[in-house]
Amino acid sequence: MKPITIYWRDVVPNPAKVVVILEELGLPYVSKYVEVSELKCEPYVSINPNGRLPAIDDPNTGIKLWESCAIVRYLIQTYDSEYKLTYSTFPEKFYLEQWAFFQASGQGPYFGQAVWFNVFHPEKLPTAQERYGHELKRVVGVLDGCLKGKNWLVGDKCTYADLAFVMWNACIPFALGATAGGGPVDFKSEDYPNFSRWQNAMLARPSLQKVMSIWKHKDIKSEGTR
Ligand SMILES: N[C@@H](CCC(=O)N[C@@H](CS)C(=O)NCC(=O)O)C(=O)O
């Protein structure tokens, strides 16, 4: 198999979501790092007209694809022939999609807006900080409730649906402004014991250990490819 090219830059949630799946499935890949200044212009917009990361180019099938959830779905359907991270059975395969859609529409955008208003927005807007901080906590509460008495969201194994959440979960302190001097919404992981157990179990997996160590050492920008 030829290596799949993944376009990304830093271990931020959406690109890292795809790298975790490549690692979990043991697929060969090469990284192309795209700087922020290169995202919204050629040649990158010919790969992803939305000018965001990630995108992939798979020479084995000829597909170029963007949107992290679509890429994960493609990798699973094309390469997870042993159902390591998925199910082919009813109703599990639909439950997986339910959680994957919830992640894409209910977790990512709300956590992302929490980051924006707590960290990057040039003026402090307490109503926006509270809105997205409370939504973040509400989403974590939904997950915590559904994980009561269970190790994984669907069935008895870790799937692509679980793994879709892990990187944004890992950003919670950052999203709530902890590294930017603190936001108005407080979060204690011990208030969400099922969620925390699940998150820690995912972080202990070799795929996540590798991705998080790249994040910790910030060494990915030093190489053009790897
Ligand atoms: N829905 C998209 C979101 C992609 C996205 O927002 N990526 C961020 C990195 S996590 C990005 O490229 N940001 C750069 C920008 O907004 O210009 C996906 O899941 O792929």
From TrEMBL:
Domain of life assignment: Eukaryota
List residues of the GST N-terminal domain: 2-83
Q: Which InterPro entries match?
A: Glutathione-S-Trfase_C-like (IPR010987), Glutathione-S-Trfase_C_sf (IPR036282), Glutathione_S-Trfase (IPR040079), Glutathione_S-Trfase_N (IPR004045), GST_C (IPR004046), Thioredoxin-like_sf (IPR036249)
Known PROSITE patterns for this protein?
GST_CTER (PS50405), GST_NTER (PS50404)
Q: Which Pfam families match?
A: GST_C, GST_N_2
Which stretches make up the GST C-terminal domain?
A: 89-222
Q: PANTHER family from the xrefs?
A: GLUTATHIONE S-TRANSFERASE-RELATED, TRANSCRIPTIONAL REGULATOR URE2
What does the sequence similarity comment in the record state about its family?
Belongs to the GST superfamily.
State the name under which the record lists this protein. Glutathione S-transferase
Source organism (scientific name):
Oidiodendron maius (strain Zn)
